[in-house]
Amino acid sequence: MADAPLSGALVWCPCPDEATALAAARTLVEEKLAGCGNVIPGVTSVFEWEGRIDTAREVGLLLKTRADLLEAAVARLGEIHPYDTPAVLGWICDAGAPATLGWLGEL
User: Fold this and answer.
1) For strand 52-66 and strand 36-49, is the pairing parallel, antiparallel, or unpaired?
2) Whole-model pTM?
């Protein structure tokens, strides 16, 4: 019986600084919950929190993972993130390059 096709997934989360984003990416890659983390500096976030509009400089973290690991990756990132209420979002990708999906399958 052939294996079911592999689906990729992404996780997005803003972090307070580069060191936090790098540490989170390293943790999830070491724990085999993600294949790669991209740290994206220079993110400016505009948000409503506790009844007021605010702006903050943050660092984005984008993780590449598999669909079957998505919930665990989102939960783990929420556990290790320093914010009280981190904005962690994950979604299954509709398409992925065969080589990328094959690489993620090795997690």
Assistant:
1) antiparallel
2) 0.91
